[in-house]
Amino acid sequence: xxxxxxxxxxxxxxxxxASLLFVALAPRRATRPLEPTPAGLQPFDELRLARTVxxxxxxAVRFAATGAAxxxxxxxxxxxxxxxxxxxxxxxxxxxxxxxxxxxxxDFPGFGSSGPPRxxxxxxxxxxxxxxxxxxxxxxxxxxxVSSGGYWAHPVVSRGGFAGxxxxxxxxxxxxxxxxxxxxxxxxxxxxRFALPRAYRFLDMRLHAAVRAxxxxxxxxxxxxxxxxxADTRALAEASGGEAVVVEGAGHLDAIRVDGQRxxxxxxxxxxxxxx
Length: 276
What we know:
This protein has 276 residues and is an alpha/beta fold. It is built from 11 helices and 8 strands. An 8-stranded mixed sheet has the order 1-2-4-3-5-6-7-8, with helices on both faces.
C-alpha cells in the first residue's frame, strides 16, 4: 500500500450524465443472443447476481475448481457482443480451474441477459465481487480483466477488493483510447473532460492503480496495439508497482493468441504471489 486514496467518485448527477455520454460515445457493437456454455466446461452453474444500482440482475456463470477451491478469479470481458462467452476460448477458465480456482464470469450491464447499464460499470464489478465473496468466504479473490473489463476493475481493486490482478490490453483512460481509435468524437471527448471534470478524473485508471491495493498485479498488451500502446501498459504497471509484459507481434486482444501459454503462466504466477 502506498497510503494514497482512490480518486473521489463524482456526484450522482455527474456520474449519471457521464455514464450516458460514455455509452453514447462507446464503440458500437452488434446485439446477439449469447451462445450456451459449452458442455466441455462442466461442471458450472448459471447464476443471477443482485445489483445495487439499476434494474434487473447480472447474468453470470460459476465454474467449479478442480478439487478443493484455494480461491476465486473473477473474469471480466471486453467490450464485445460476445459478453462473458468471450472466455469460452483460449483456455483461461480451464487453466484457472486446474490450478484450484473457482471462476465467476459475469456479463456487464447491457450485455447478454444482464440488466441495462446505470452509472459507471465498476458498480457491476463490485456487485459481482460481493456475490463471489459470499460464495467463497474467507478465501482470496483475484481479478482477470480484458480491455474494458480490466479497465472497470481498477476502481474496485483500488478499494481493496482483490488480492491479485491480471490485466490484458487495458487503457489508462478510455478517452485516450477513443482519441486514437475514434477521432471523429474528439469534440465530444473535450466537452466531457471540461464539463465533467470529476468524472473525467475518476476515469483515469493511473490514479486508481497508484493506490497499490492489490498484493500483485501484471499488465499485458500487444506491441502492435494502436489503442493501448506499450507506454500505456508500462505506465499502469509502474503506478501499481506491478509487472508489464508487451507481447511482440500482437495487436489488441491478440496477445492470448500469439503467446497464450505464457499469458496463462503469468496469470497463475501473479495470483500465486498475491496468495502469499
